[in-house]
């Protein structure tokens, strides 16, 4: 009779558990090292639906800092509304801030201009690059978006978000002067010729080329704030605001 080897089930189970617990600490440590500085970042840019003329803080004459050379785009829209971004952005309905954005929008007092969420590692002493923002209405006269600027995320001991956004509107329309009509003539010009020349110019006035209306500053946000994970932070001005949320993974 051929002998058969038999192993008890508890012995196999014990060996498997021992092997699993032997491998688990190293695997967990590797996962924690790879994700301890990994965050889900969310930013919502909104506009208050108020008449810019009603804003008490008149900023039309404020001096604007020269624009920084920003190579990275967070949320940039062109004249047709097409979005460009260098980040892999999540859909708005996937954001933790999605509900807050919807409540603000449904109140009728706010308009959501951008809702961005992405995953990124922010290790200690992380010096982030500014990310360009261009959203809102297209200003025909200035050939730009109404809200432009950049947002920057750094981490020293804590995460810090710097918001530098300008809210613009079309400037006053340029004055259009009536085409000038020549009244002087040479001595040799007869009266009939004068009348004919003036009549021709009246029928075919010279076109007046108007310069595009420059953009006029309404308000701005220039603020850097320390962020806590799992908390919603709100940075605002009289006409625009930014919601920020971080979740550590």
Automatic annotation (TrEMBL):
Q: Which InterPro entries match?
A: CsiV
Look up the signal peptide feature and give its range: 1-31
Which residue ranges are recorded for the region named Disordered? 171-197
Keyword list (alphabetical) reads: Signal
Compositional bias annotation for Low complexity = 172-190
Q: Which domain of life is it from?
A: Bacteria
What is this protein's record name?
5'-methylthioadenosine phosphorylase
